[in-house]
Specification:
The chain is of the alpha+beta class. It is built from seven helices and 13 strands.
Length: 292
């Protein structure tokens, strides 16, 4: 049988093709999922990466809490509020975490963060837009410096999932180049993917053995900066925007640093159910770290 002759130009093309394929296979999964419709400015590296980031104090943001940088994307930073929102005007002490937990949704078995019935989403939008002027409830002031740097994102369209292998990569939000100082879903809850990669000690994947795995060291260091109350009597945690793998569960980050999922049941009088608090995150222009 005659040997197949390959022209030198064809050899070069094949070599380039295989090199390109190998390069793609080596890229982090969040780079492969880049939002090409909303690229960062020309010349900015399109990479989303965890960072043991800086802390923004209240005199820089205009909020009443510190904020923690947990990831970067080119010229932008993903930051999260260090302290949970005071969302309920309840009994003294008002800021006690047991008084500030909430159920995920007003509707039973609704675990979609994008639903208008999602209380976690509603509380975050209320805080950011300053809709309630009750001094007992946290809101972001109209003149807060943070507003000058917050960006529109695709977070509401990128909910991800929880507790599966795909959950490690299907929920990464990215900023657009459009700045927005008010509006719904400018601030948002983190996803399961983002909590695992940027802000946790461990994570749970149902099909793995063991099911609980260690997060990367930087994510673990970031978690140590977060204020999730520690109390052995209650399973406090942070609600995430990712739905759970059953209709009555949603993603959550526990007060042990484990990225997992919680039930959606209302808080019961005997305090036996799981609890979760509300922590907003935002994408900002990284120039916010330049002190005024």
């Amino acid at each position: 049988m005659p040997k197949l002759k390959i022209h030198p130009i064809q050899k070069k093309i094949l070599a380039l093709f295989f090199l390109f394929a190998l390069t793609l296979s080596a890229l982090p999964i969040w780079m492969l999922n880049a939002d090409t419709k909303n690229p960062t400015p020309p010349g900015t590296p399109i990479t989303l990466q965890v960072t043991d980031g800086k802390t923004l104090p209240p005199d820089i943001t205009g909020d009443t809490s510190n904020w923690i940088e947990i990831a970067t994307y080119g010229n932008y930073s993903l930051i999260i509020r260090q302290n949970y929102l005071i969302i309920h005007n309840k009994t003294t002490p008002q800021n006690h975490p047991i008084e500030q937990c909430c159920i995920y949704s007003k509707t039973a078995l609704t675990n979609r963060y994008s639903s208008n019935n999602c209380l976690v989403r509603n509380y975050i939008n209320t805080w950011f837009n300053g809709l309630k002027k009750d001094l007992a409830i946290d809101i972001l002031s109209d003149n807060a410096r943070l507003r000058n740097y917050t960006m529109q994102t695709n977070a509401i369209r990128t909910l991800g999932s929880s507790n599966s292998r795909t959950s490690l990569s299907d929920g990464f939000s990215q900023p657009t180049t459009t700045q927005a100082n008010k509006g719904n879903d400018i601030a948002f809850a983190l996803s399961f993917s983002e909590a695992v990669e940027f802000l946790s000690k461990t994570y749970k994947i149902n099909t793995q053995n063991p099911s609980t795995q260690s997060s990367n060291p930087t994510a673990s260091a970031n978690y140590e900066k977060l204020n999730i109350p520690q109390n052995p009597a209650y399973t406090y945690g942070m609600w995430l925007r990712s739905p759970g793998n059953t209709p009555n569960t949603a993603g959550a980050l526990s007060n042990t640093g484990n990225t997992t999922q919680y039930t959606l049941n209302p808080i019961s009088p005997n305090k036996t159910n799981e609890y979760a608090l509300v922590y907003p995150a935002v994408w900002v222009n990284s120039n916010i770290f330049i002190h005024p």
